[in-house]
Amino acid sequence: MIALDDNARRMITNARALLDAMLAGGWQRVCLQSAEWDFFLARSPGTSNPLLAPAPVVAPAVSPPPPAVAAQACTIRAPHVGTVAWLLPVGSQTGKGDAVARLAVLDTLVDVPAPLAGVVVSHGMAANDLAEYGTILLGMEG
């Protein structure tokens, strides 16, 4: 039998809690990434793993150039599954790279940075909601 320390027991308990939440909540897939590792779990066999998929090639759109004063708009998507905490309310100014939201997954808190300087114009869900991978968290204009 393998001896487990308290940290290993805690990680096993957290993994079981994640699996229980996935089964109880009707999730179809879970994607987690960090600088050191990737994790993908799907309920249905044969589900394609988005972590292994090549980045989509998008043809540039042909359109007239925008006016010089037009605001740049963007949406920020959840980089992984987690419980949402808002760090800035709608209408707040933020700088590029500033944390605008925080995702909690198991015992880890991950700040979600703003991709541009601007104003938070919308929240995609309520605080403490569970965001799935790729869910729109918020909208910004810069």
CATH superfamily: RNA polymerase II/Efflux pump adaptor protein, barrel-sandwich hybrid domain
Q: Which residues form runs of ≥5 with pLDDT under 50? A: none
Query: How many alpha or pi helices?
Result: 1
Number of domains: 1
Task: Give a short synopsis of this structure.
By secondary structure, this protein is α+β, with helices and mostly antiparallel strands.
Outline the structure in words.
The chain is an alpha+beta fold and 142 residues long. It has one domain: RNA polymerase II/Efflux pump adaptor protein, barrel-sandwich hybrid domain (OB fold (Dihydrolipoamide Acetyltransferase, E2P), Beta Barrel), CATH 2.40.50. It contains 1 helix and 10 strands. The protein has one helix spanning 6-25; strands at 29-33, 38-42, 73-77, 82-86, 93-94, 99-105, 108-113, 118-123, 130-131, 136-141. The strands form 3 sheets. Strands 3-10-8-5 form a 4-stranded antiparallel beta sheet, with no helix packed on it. It has a 4-stranded antiparallel beta sheet with strand order 7-6-4-9, with no helix packed on it. A two-stranded antiparallel sheet has the order 1-2. Strand 1 and strand 2 (38-42) form a beta hairpin. It is globular. The model has no long low-confidence stretch (mean pLDDT 82).
